[in-house]
Amino acid sequence: MLKVINYTKKNSYKKLEKFLNKRRGKRQSETSTVIRILNDIKKNKLIAVKKYERKFSSNNIIYPSIREINQAINSLDKKVKKSIDKAYLRILKFHKLQKPKDIKLIDKYKNKIEYKNIPLPSIGIYVPSNLPSSLLMNAIPARLAKIKNIYLSNPRIKSKLDPAVMYAAKKCGIKPSRIISVGGAQAIGHLAYIDKCSKIVGPGNLYVASAKKIVSDDVGTESILAGPSEVTVIADKFSNINQVLLSLLAQSEHDKNCQSILITNDKKLISECNLKIKSFLKNSNRKKIVQKSLKNNGLIIYAKNKKKIIECANIISPEHLEILTKDFRSYKNKITNAGSIGLGKYSPVASSDYAVGVNHVLGCYGSSKYASGLNLSDFYKKYSQFELTKSGIESISKTAIELALYENLSFHALSIKSRLKV
Fold it and tell me: SS3 of 124, please?
């Protein structure tokens, strides 16, 4: 049974925040182990990576050969290849529209002020397990940004390369020489300290999320906290209970640390959900993972009106939000703290993980309050440049000098004065 919070009572938001913070605090628990691994890799490079791969994955092959990669690709079912091809095109089409534009301003004094976007020199992509969809979400924007050096780290499954991930890598133009078969914190260490990537992106478990946070002192990472998946579903008495439950279970099957939350104003739906969950899990091949996820992090919130429902959703700030109410459009633009929002019964979050076209690398642990999901801008760095004319510096000098003197920065003022009447 999922835990239920009655959000109609006084200080209910404190109970909700306490529940959310319990899970969010767990990401700190693995920090000491991850720091030890990363420091070892920083110092001993490949020797350390191999040591941890043998320890955690019994893996002795860090760099797959071209032959092994091609063999994996050739073994892939044609139907899966076709699905990857179709998903690739939809993601490409939507992300093409996100390309940032340079800005230039020329004023009446012929001063030129510019804001430039240039692609990062290199990018490291972490793809956990057999998730070609995650590779597409990360590699397609990187290719559109024209990043020259794209590295991929994808752990082996039972000592073998994943055929679909290898096919997606080839589709996205990732060179075989830049593919490593490493997982966990040691993968992030390799991308940061051996490949020396400018930025590391991609989802992962607690160890991966912690590692990315730690290496962010040395390399770039997404502004979001990409970790174990999250979904919040808003439903009412008109919602289809099967659709509600399946959307909750879909995100819970990723990892035991995932979080699925239902917000509803219908008490009958709450009872039915808790009664039907067991029957849905009977034949699941990921039953234990889902059960642990729901037991530790699952939640149902009873909120009696729309105002409270919106308040709850914005406090949770989930990675994914799915609105299954009859009046789903009435919530548009009112819930702003979410990585991606699926509106209506024909917009399941699960579809956005694959073939809608939107990106599924989104903020977890409440980071959607302040950050956006992965997008094309993540693959550029931006800088400004300016060229002032003689009349241009004269026109702004009085303002600049006055502010410099107010801030007691006399050399600033003198630097500006030295350009006048030259």
Answer: strand
What is the Cα–Cα distance from 201 to 196, expressed in whole angstroms?
A: 13
For 276, the token pair is: 């039907």
DSSP string, 30-48: THHHHHHHHHHHHHHTHHH
C-alpha–C-alpha distance, residues 289 and 49, integer Å: 28
Element of type H or E holding 89: helix 78-96
Residue 286 phi/psi, 5° resolution?
A: -125, 35
- pTM value > 0.85: yes
Give 422: exposed, middle or buried? Use CB within 10 Å, 0-12, 13-18, 19+. exposed
Strand-pair partners of 125: 152, 201
The residues assigned a catalytic role are 319-320
CA distances from 249 to 129, 288, 326, 361 (A): 19, 12, 21, 19
Beta strands across the sheet bearing 380-387 = 103-106, 112-119, 380-387
Query: Consecutive sets of 10 residues in the chain, 422 residues long: mean pLDDT of each?
Result: 87 88 72 92 97 92 97 98 98 96 96 97 95 97 97 95 98 97 96 97 88 92 79 97 96 91 96 90 89 94 94 95 97 94 96 95 89 93 96 96 97 96 66
DSSP summary character for residue 373: P
